[in-house]
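Subgroup meeting minutes
Present: P.N., E.W., G.H.
Scribe: E.W.

1. P.N. recapped why we're keeping a running log of single-chain structure predictions: easier to compare across weeks, and new members can see raw inputs and outputs side by side.
2. G.H. added today's entry (249 aa).
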Amino acid sequence: MTLCQESLGFGDVNDRGTADGMDRMRDERSGIGLMRRALTAVGAVLLLGAGSVACAADEEEHPQFVGADEVCGGLFAGATAEMLEKVTGDKVFAWESGEGMEKVVSALKEGYESGRSWARGADLCEPQPKGGGVKEEANVSFSMYAPQDVEDEGLPAGAELYTMGVQSSVRKGGASLYFECTSPRLEGSDRTPLRVYGGFGRGESDAPDNREYRNMNMQILHAVTLKLVKELDCENNAGLPKSPVLTPK
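Output recorded in log:
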């Protein structure tokens, strides 16, 4: 018996059996037994039907696993999904909602309005491959960076600078992108733009480390960054091109 059935009052049949039997005998002697049982049956069906709808509404309606083009509300649709499959080496991921965009926008606005030089952001999406653990989990996140963060060009071992944005770089396991956003949604940004850092990490993967795959890391980050730029209503796409510039500096 399910919890929903119990909540509808169908969990105590044995306890009521004796009392109900005596009631039926009395009713049948008085000639109303059949009518009572009919009305009771109809009521039970109606109650069960209403309860089933309520219980179904509480259940998750999404699949447990989805393809790369469906994870995080379709964030990586089209060619970007194919690139995500290649750099992670996986085609099936745990379902994840598309609420990450709202969280990132909210975190960036809150950080900017705080007046601080930098602020923590939020994860946009964390595609976790089926059967994989935390180490295999990919990640796209955004935060507000301080001016000195791009003045210091110290990069992780093996990373290399690209020319796109305020600063950009690629490495074996991901890509980074710095840009500035002026938006009517951010009061004062026409004087002091919102500084945004975006990062993509592919997680542990057997994918090769070559120019093609490093470029795909940047292409994935660029594609989802344009979606964030649109949500923030950044002027002139925050200075980012519609097609990624994949030129080493």
